[in-house]
Amino acid sequence: METILYDQFYRIEEEHWWFVARREIILDQLRRYAPFPTANDILDVGCGTGIMLQCLQGFGRVQGFDFSPEALAYCRRRVGGSVPLTLGTLGEKPPFPPRTFDVITLLDVIEHIEDDQAAVRGARDLLRPGGVVICTVPAHPFLWSGHDVLNQHKRRYTARELRRTIAGAGLRIEKFSYFNTLLAPAVFAARLATPRRRRLEPRSDFKVYPRWLNILLTRIFLLEKPLLRLANAPFGVSLLCVARRVDA
Question: What is the pTM of this model?
Fold first, then answer.
């Protein structure tokens, strides 16, 4: 990811509608599927600028793991010395013993990795039996844009591709759904109405909106939280998967 984006994320992710609602939805799914109250050890892979580390501290012993020294520097600014931070990647031999964690988060991470299935397999190996991986990714290759280019994504996923990646890594899928569904028609229309050349110019989709609009978008997105407890959404801008290690 371009270094300039770390600064942008650090400045906006506490209040920006997309980050706020996404966090709430992910944490709600975590409460449903993670092996609590016995789950104590959590690894946030691709911890970025540390906002999820803050949220996850209420669930157990949290560690952050990222390939970027710049990202970890922002994490230290946010969480201080309260969370252990490790530099590295899942593609190499991770600096953790096998079966160390009860929960591993891969939140908009594996789309940055060439061999995504190897990364998920690496996460699986770090899980204790019964532990869960929570993974989110950008959906729909037809939505590819300059935002993906700037973020150095390797791909956007179809549902079939993500299922194959997760299941092929030896995990049992327990929740699989699109999300960011209610706002998806507007996103689809905006992307497809933009001329291709302009659409592919590297630029961030994350803009600072007027307070009233940011609140409105947050509330619309958060309407999905209770709905995702009951059912899986048939379309959306992102995909969410919760998968469990079931071997002994």
Answer: 0.95
